[in-house]
Amino acid sequence: MSASPAGGGGGKQTGSKGKGKHAKSPRMSSGGGAPSTVKKDESNSVAAKESSLNNQPATSANSQQNLQHPACAASCEGAQGGSNTDPSKDQSKQAKAKKPKAEPVKKPEGGEGGEQKSKAQLKAERRALQEAQRAAKEAKKKEAGGGGNETAAPPAVKKETTAEKPKAKAQPTSQPAKKVKPKEMIKDAPKGETEEEMWARKEKEILAKSLKIDNNILNLGFQYFYHRVVGANARCIAMLAELREVIGKYKTPPEKELCRDLEKSLLAPCITYINYCRPLSTSMGNAIKYLKYHINRIPSDMDDRTAIGQLQDVIDTFIQENILKASEAVALYANSKIVDGDVILVYAASSLICQVLKTAHVKGKKFRVIVVEGRPRTEGKSMLRFLVRCGIPCSYIYIGSATHAMGEATKVFLGAAAMFSIGDMHSRTGNSMIAALAQAYNIPVLACCETYKFTDKVQLHLADSNLHARGRDLIDPGPHNRPSVLLTSPEDAKSSEGSGSGGTASGPNLLNLMYDVTKSRHITMLVTELGMLPCTSVPVVLRRQEDLVAEV
Amino acid sequence: MPGGEGDKASDLKERIEAFVYKMKKGNLTRSCDVAINTIDLLIRIISQAKFSNARELLKHVRAEGSYLQAGDPSENIIGNMIRRVLKIIREEYRAILSQDAGGEATIKFEDVSIAESKEDDYAKPTPNLKAFVIEAISELKTEIEGGAKNIADLAPNYINENDIILTIGRSRTVEAFFKHAALKKIKFQVLVSECAPFFHGHEMAKNLAEAKINTTLITECQIGTIMPRVNKVIIGTHSFMANGGLKAVTGTNILALLAKEHNKHVIVCSSLYKLSPLFHSTLKHASFNKFASPNELLDYEDAELLSKVEVIAPIFDYVPPDLVSMVVSNNGPQSVSYVYRLVKDYYHPDDVDL
Predict the structure, then answer these.
(1) A182 → closest Cβ in B223, B229, B261
(2) Does the interface ipTM go beyond 0.90?
């Protein structure tokens, strides 16, 4: 808490940049953030930020920055305040848990109310909500009636979860196997469960699980689940900020040591929950690793207050040094490669690339940007908006037509979600295509990545599970509400999709992968805060990081 | 009688105007429809034309053809059809002449020779020409109509059991190709790229799924991700150039490039009426590409962006011939490098410039 003005404030700033930017895109497509902000009068942090971005069309970059700053700081506090006021009237945990439940579920409703597609989804959501509320009520009754409330109350809910949980668990573990068998990968439907059913079940389970999780984490989980917070940096900062809060509330139970109990009883369930809402990104994984390392180093005789203060400092330093300062450094290094007259091609959105381009523009460099867009997330649009507000001349093109832009582009900048130790880049799906295309046109590809996203893991080809994004997004009506032919009527589409995966009735399967892997040979250069490196230097950097940690 | 002819002439004029209007508006999207409509018009034009020899007829058809083509300069099919008809007129003329002469030596020589023939001025009177020409054009029409089916019949040769096939957008020829393979009880899987911002792929995926083919819809940005798992790429094309390069729906270039990157075969299903004797000079060649409205990508309501951003929404991609493995045509499979020879077969060198 003590160090928050410097570290936390800064964190929020960039976080909001990332968050607002990314999170905005679905909202933009669904026609304005106003209704949604009305719904969330409890001032969900992201919602407030979005509205601050949407409703105040800041023309110049600086004013935007200024606007963001207080707005998001306030909203962050607001969110914290909101969750703090809740406990004040906390009579039963279930009642408390219900509130945030109802709130985020309504979000899409507010945003996409007028659209065809949402009807089916809404139904599912409402059903899920009702069920969860019923479960909560039941639990409440039992609690009121019996003495063993903590253990006796949840079973009604818990059985559901445990019954379905193994299935859910089986999916992530079966991913590697899927790599070998493309058919399975594409079908996405293990054990007769269609993808849509899986998502509906997940939504339910998130609600059911939430009874025991801290409110802050709960909010965060929902924001991840509904893609309100997107982007490696934004997700990582959001998570660290919430964990910082949660750790602040921690008290070591008697007869236990903080360094052991904190991780086991507080951190682990939170992280499991977050991971369940949406698989952790590498950036988040590394941050957690870092945090755990520091928790373990706390001497067992230190008192709670000092230890927690120390941990919060650790989090602040991580945000400050590894994320914010690092991205500034990356921007500086990358700038040395931008010259007057450049035509820079970027794909989708990346907070880091935004910063790079903005810094270059502020320094007075004359260049043009081509923003390449990928469906269905259309994150490029938020990138485009950011750049236009900065005053940078932009072009906008879909990825299918990217070849037309390649003729004039002189450099390609790509943002990474992670770098694997063999030098491959893990990033939003589509980046590998752009890199391959650029190479075919002999255009240098500069990948920008902070070193905290480096990982010693390696994934080949298909990077990720289908647990990130829904296939249904593919047939969402586009920005101009032109409904897909696959979406004749919501019910019809739903049923056809349900059986489509089984291959019985009409309706194709939908595949929506969120990440892909770019081969290191397609990347000319990697720009990090340590300077410009070849991709093959990733293990060197990892090694150095290990050494540094060992020294500390 | 004169009144009736006047009616006919005005009727023809109306039809021509309607066709040009349709082309300008972009109402005719199927290349097969464009071809058939053009041929129908040409048949009418020829049947109403008054001429004393083949040269006059050629001149007449060429003049009317240029007018048709002007409706949409980027639509190669119209030009192709006109050139095919011109070639038919030339052939029929020579056939009549050689029949009259009683020998066929000149024709054979003409077919083999690449050099342009200069001795022919098509000025000799040939009374039966019109009937022969119209008959030959009708044959051409039948050939075009049956093209997709002929190609589909070849499907079992190229689709194997358990194949994973990637395609993009919607092509009737490819759709028929897949459906025929499915009829032959071949189990395979199709991945359809949706072809944003036009989303023809959704329609394709729907139709294939209805035909009980295991179909998965993907976005363009996932092509790179799934390419390693794909066995082959089968696409349609709008038309193809004299060098074997394709003029196809946008996204095809990047698709073909990635297929090459992963060493996958790119098979193009196309009837030969799509073969154009023209070369593709540059991407921005006026008669090559068309651009869609920016509204396809950005909402007009989004004035902040739209007023400041250059939105590029090309409709076609040029795919260089080295990215294409083969063309499956209604005359069987063709090598891309052999396409130039087909051009010589189908079009007369004098007709390349209309």
Answers:
(1) B229
(2) no
